[in-house]
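Apologies for my clumsy wording, but are you able to produce some protein sequence, whichever is easiest, and the tokens describing how it folds?
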Amino acid sequence: MSYSIETIKKEVSQERDHLVSLRRYFHTHPELPREEYETAKFIEEELHKLGLNTRRVGETGVYALLEGTKPGKALILRADIDALPITETHECPYKSVNDGKMHACGHDAHTAALLGAAKILVNHKDDIKGSIAFCFQQAEEIGYGANIFVNEGLVKGDRCFGIHLASNIECGKVSATAGPNNASVDYFKIKVNGSCAHVSTPELGIDAVYIASMITVGAQGLVTRRTNPTDSVIIGIGKIVAGTAYNIVAGEAVLEGTIRVMYPEIRSQVKAELKALAENTAKIYGGEASIEYQDFTAPLINPEGPTHEVQLVATKLFGSDNVITNRKYSLGGDDFAEFNIEVPGCYAYVGSGNPNIKETTLAHHDSSFDIDERCLEVATQLHVAYALDYLNDNI
């Protein structure tokens, strides 16, 4: 074995400027979900420099496989690459040049860290027992890209591992928490059909606005009266479109929203109950309602074993005081969950906040979001050390 925790940290430190330059390139040139063509091309060029062959996954995902010199287990490392439809307001040398597009969630750093890890791991080919798959996944923000990798048969192996930055964790700290970490994300659209009439004669029509309002109120009853108060459930309706004029009973209404839950069985229950609520509420008032779902991602639940492995590696790297093992779960989603369903793994959070730099402590998706770039070394170290220790049975 020709590596140690100390040598890994030294090798990553030597790549500091390269990591920063990669991250700043991606930050300056953000692309939206399913539009990451130039991002994918750049990633491919970087991987080709390392002697790795690449494969396009869907239109904009990138996959590469590094096989060690000895047989062994199969590990998957994943980073998401897409940006958000946000106009950046943070003035910095690497500000987005693509109008209305911004890396406001840290995916630029995720991509840079995994590329940096690939560079170091290629140099440790003789230390790799088995293989490492590098998955640069598109369209995480719309819950699309992970399923493309799964459907193309690329999420196969013994372990998977992914990293997300966290602005509410101080740079230098890492969270690896077993159990629920992120909620499922389901989009829904409810269409209500009524019939128009003059507002002075409401009995001659079927009021789609009224029905939509009753569905909106009733949905909150499903949360407070049909689920356990200790189970975190959200039914959020963010958009209602209805009516044609102030004095006409609306003949149609459309509601759009999302369901967030932490457990698969509750997810199925809430979806079924919302469907019944919409249909029955409309029927009571003489109308009809239909609902369509788009399943963006399952709940992200870290299994105990793989998470403990990551905790041990992180402790060796950063010390136990800098490893969080009980971080509160989030009702935001992440489609790394689909990787975790196929292959047991862990999704870790790397702190990117610095209390002395305001922009690094802002919430993800803020238009002035930024990171303490020292976190790039932390993320890269964790990728490399976990890969080598896991494949060499050193955990």
The longest strand covers residues 159-170. Residues 48 and 54 are 7 Å apart (CA to CA).
